[in-house]
Amino acid sequence: MSVPQRTVVRSRAPGGERFASQEYHLVLVSGPDAGKSFSVKEALRIGKAPDNDIVLDHPTVSRNHLVVRRQGDVFTVQDLDSTNGTFVDGAQVREAYLRAGALLEVGDVQLRFQPQLLALEVSPASDARLGDLVGASLPMRQVFSLLQRIGPTESTLLLIGETGCGKGAAARTVHKLSTKATGAFVVFDCAAVSENLIESELFGHEKGSFTGAVAQRVGCLERAHGGTLFLDEIDDLPLDLQPKLLRALEDREFRRLGQSGAPLKFDARVVAASKKDLWAETQAGRFREDLYFRLSVFTVTLPPLRDRKEDLPLLVDAMASGPLWQRLPDKQREQFSAHTWPGNVRELRNAVERLKHVADIPELASESFLREYSGPQAPQGESLPVKYAGPFKDVKEELVRAFEREYLTRLLSKTRGNIAKAARDAELDRKHLYSLLHKYGLVQSDEG
């Protein structure tokens, strides 16, 4: 039952700060000093004796009652042979993990273990590149600074950002900076697996554990042992599976479906990604608060491309592996700068992939060619351009493709990249929607 460590970086935290740090405190719930808060550092001794870090002058409290320790991402409480015992959420313990919101009873004195958000100033990095990430804008250089600080630790990381803004690239960058860089980088996309198979994909299964389990399967947690586990689209993980994932992350062990005997050990750096603000999701009851706190040891929000268009020249040249931006006609550069890029960096990558082959061919590198893959710029309600020359079948297929791309681009923009909501709004099966998005290069399974 581990809980987050001291520092969490958030964008638009509950208090409204763009970046914030999260510290854990023990807050007195009962007695004349109710409301008094004590910051939890490396170790905090509690008891009646005056040399304790928290002195509780109460007849039910022993002189040296207990100690709370922080070990990386984990907080533990240990009873020091007290007379009246130590209780966590009503259960007497000798030694136990503390999770966010836990009620700690020291004799008849109650303390709540809870996080508090503080504003955090972030100095931007000087470089315009970090791993697979590129950007000279202030928001991106702030992100680089945070990732450089977080990468060498083994702390769990939560990445927040719209679809296609580079969460997958950020996760790979953190993996390369970590102490587990020589291990495997395993991606599990919570949105791309049907609900009845998610548990098997995560934890694996034994032969015969359910209908269709004809052989043993090694799950993502097991494959990530010694490396990094990237949980993409974590906001799409079903509520009923969230406690199972939480327990595996807290205990650092798990069992395959149908497995008997000792559990398997799990030692991996965990990076999760969400296209939604998970704090808002917890407040709405759509995501478990305890799992949120377990994942958000650090939280970094990646800006959408429309908020850092000054990075376009750098990004285009980096994606083209050469100086492409300056070779583009002025009108085309203006169109790139005016475009809202609902598919973010992923959409730009697909545009560059086509452009770098035709940039020197004026009749192909034209405004109409750009519209074909970055979405028509016509106002809502305006008809799509139609060519009436050529075979009926070819013209019809071209119009259908133009409609599908425009429809999907506007759908993603309207739902801000929320695939589940987009599928509901379009009344499409989510797998079919993913297939269409892949068809037009608007989503890829290996990137956030």
Describe the 3D structure.
The structure is a single chain. With 448 residues, the chain is of the alpha+beta class. 32% of the residues lie in helices and 21% in strands. The protein is built from 14 helices and 22 strands. It has helices at residues 138-150, 167-177, 195-203, 220-223, 242-251, 278-283, 289-295, 312-320, 330-338, 344-358, 367-374, 392-415, 419-426, 430-439, and strands at 20-28, 37-39, 43-47, 54-55, 66-71, 74-79, 86-88, 91-93, 95-98, 103-106, 109-119, 129-130, 133-134, 157-160, 185-189, 204-205, 217-218, 228-232, 253-254, 264-265, 269-274, 298-301. The strands form six sheets. A six-stranded antiparallel beta sheet has the order 2-1-11-10-7-8, with no helix packed on it. A hairpin with a 2-residue loop joins strand 12 and strand 13. Helix 12 (392-415) crosses helix 13. It is elongated, with a radius of gyration of 26 Å. The two termini are 28 Å apart. The model is unreliable at 1-18, 367-383 and 444-448 (pLDDT under 50).
